[in-house]
Amino acid sequence: MRTLRIGTRGSVLATTQAGHVRDALIGGGNPAELTIVTTPGDINHSPVERIGVGVFTTAIREALFRGECDVAVHSHKDLPTAHEPRTHLIVPPREDNREALIARDGLTLAELPEGARVGTSAPRRIAQLRALRPDLEILPLRGNIDSRMGRVTSGELDAVVLAFAGMSRVGLGARATELFDADVFMPAPAQGALAVECRADDEQVREAIDALAVASDIACVQAERTVLAELEAGCTAPVAATATCDASGVITLRAGVFALDGSGRATASASGTDPQALGRDVARTLIDDDCARYL
């Protein structure tokens, strides 16, 4: 059996995520190693809103199609919602999808002083923070996990909001001073989930990555991302979704679209067993509630 080359960006978070996949493949009897793919986003340090999240995932997929790697690992929330017929994609065990606050002095969101400086650049997070605490000063936040949290340590910011999944994967989960209930401060669709894919015609690798797949996590991610697709919204839109799946296979999905200034929101929820039908139903409810006024 050949050694499977796993394509990933070179950042600490990306290589850690891909490393988990590598270790799982090796544990299943498939030799594997990491292959670093340099993307335009690693060279151009402009804001994601300007260069587009897709530059990262596109570069890794292109390396896969060129045969430079056998497996591609992405943060699932960064992938386009459109189906890519040239790849076979699975979702391995999903991390906690909640949002985390990292604040000075161990403070929670409610305990931050009036006018506290909180860092985030995600419109979805900005909108929900402004709804929960309209007095806060929301400031742009970019960089890797360490540099973002470092702005709190240095005193430049009072707090930052990050995805808890990324913190957990690099061993920094204990730095969170508050974890938000996913129904109160809703995460991005597919947050905490990885997408592991290979070329659709590579039967050996398909079999290897299929052994890592978790059906319930795949169903939840499909439901969440269907909402995003139906709303024709990108990953930087103020759209959130979170789903859970019980032991009988029933999925409960909740989604929301938020006004950037915190002045309003449209939310909807439903349960069912067909993730795509469920996502379409929830999206239609949001559309009927005129969620477009917030996009």
From TrEMBL:
Keywords: Porphyrin biosynthesis, Transferase. GO terms for biological process: protoporphyrinogen IX biosynthetic process. The keyword DNA-binding does not apply. Its EC number is 2.5.1.61. Binds 1 dipyrromethane group covalently. It catalyses: 4 porphobilinogen + H2O = hydroxymethylbilane + 4 NH4(+). The keyword Transferase applies. Its cofactor is dipyrromethane. GO terms for molecular function: hydroxymethylbilane synthase activity. Residues 4-206 form the Porphobilinogen deaminase N-terminal domain. Belongs to the HMBS family. Monomer. This is Porphobilinogen deaminase.
